[in-house]
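Running log. JK asked me to keep both predictions on one page so they can be read side by side. First protein, sequence followed by its tokens:
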Amino acid sequence: MPNSGTHWAGRMREDVASARLRDPAARSGLEVAILYPGLHAIWAHRVNHALWNRGLRFPARLGSQFTRWLTGIEIHPAATIGRRFFIDHGMGVVIGETAEIGDDVMLYHSVTLGGRTRDSGKRHPTLENGVVVGAGAKILGPVVIGAGTAIGANAVVTKDAPADSVLTGVPAKVRTRTPGEDLTHLLSAPDYVI
């Protein structure tokens, strides 16, 4: 079994490779590792999450607030995040306490995974594997977004969505993805349906 340092270094290399794969502007691994605030926020979250899980709640929250100040990305230390998670640009991203994020998920800037109630318990979204969320989208409440779903820019999601769907508009409407469909236009331009 690898030691903890080897494990963390391997995960960091995996994160850099994931960012390079998803961002056509990435020129080198060194550039990504040094200059990408989304990665810095994820790396800090791993430390803060470990502190949180060990019952060190105040240091975990302090660390998350310091990271927010440095990166503009707020991730509650209790949030559960999978592997190869990538936040592109990142400024204004908010991830709430009970949010759960699967593997290979990508968020653009100004995305909120927020709550709609002050009740205790599960109150933030669950994003299953391979979900992509466009800039400015808001996913609110304890909804479940199925694997492989794409959420368009500025969409407001308050209901569950099945796997391999597309969500656009305010409030978001769901449709099934067409096999081979290019969804990049949804992630950068708003599709308002009021």
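And the second, directly underneath as requested:
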Amino acid sequence: MLIELANYLTMFDSSFGVVRYITLRTILAVLTALAISFLVGPAMIRRLSQYKIGQTVRDDGPQSHLSKAGTPTMGGALILVAVAVATLLWSDLGNRYVWIVLTTTLAFGAVGLWDDYRKLVLRDARGLPARWKYLWQSLFGLAAAWALYTTAQVPAETRLFLPFFKEFAWDMGPTFILLAYLVIVGSSNAVNLTDGLDGLAILPTVLVAGALGIFAYVSGHAGIAEYLLIPHLPGVGELAIFAGTLVGAGLGFLWFNAYPAQVFMGDVGALALGAALGVLAVATRQEVTLFIMGGVFVMETVSVVLQVASFKLTGKRIFRMAPLHHHFELKGWPEPRVIVRFWIITVILVLVGLASLKIR
């Protein structure tokens, strides 16, 4: 939105042309989303507390979690507001990638919002039934995959690339839609499973989003992409701004979500953020890199799958409790230790992912 205004003002003063640079607009998007979070956050937390929209806690979980009952949740709405406003302000609204990514994020957020509303406002313990939740996730995931496939302008947009291998480029054809769907929906649910401790999910999301923003920028820049031997994807550089809004909004939310949390994001935030990471990875052709950088999300998801499979097949549990972070809590790790160590793991994995830009 503001880039159009800046383009107009350059007729009177050429210095406004600096707003055209993606790097500057990304920085401004981060700061805008952060400012919105700081300004809106306290009022939103008060309103959620006023309406008694608080977290429910399982009796069979770690006993330290019982004190969290009643903590305001659905705070993920704050993240979505900050992301949407900052994206609309600083992005080129004529860019198709921006609309596909933003719409997908908000759509998954709507699914999470309805689930949270049923559980916390209507007091329906089931929330949105799993089959309906998965149905809507699937529809929105397929819609995003179809949009990216049908609007592709260069062959690289539908090819599969592997990090650290410069020669590998598989032209997937319609198989692209299936892969994109699995990445978007899988990432959405993986972040949702990880969101079980104060700040555990949000900082890894911020770190991975920041890295994907770097991938978006270099892939969208013809000169840098050629130098790094990565696919050039015209227009995808604009997604660096969207990734920046995730970083700013995520850090702003962490201000209130850090241990001990004043607010939880709920499904409205977790499902949306996971989908945002997934669609960013697909758009930048970094699905495998997302698997590496989001290793914490992968571990949490695999722990649930293994736990359920083991119990159904043998009647025995592999972990004391799933997802994995609860296993370590029940082993006696204090909650902050689990959180920080998972953060450290994510930092390492994100650096490995970024190294693939040069090591090929």
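Observation for JK regarding the second prediction: Strands lie at 159-162, 165-171.
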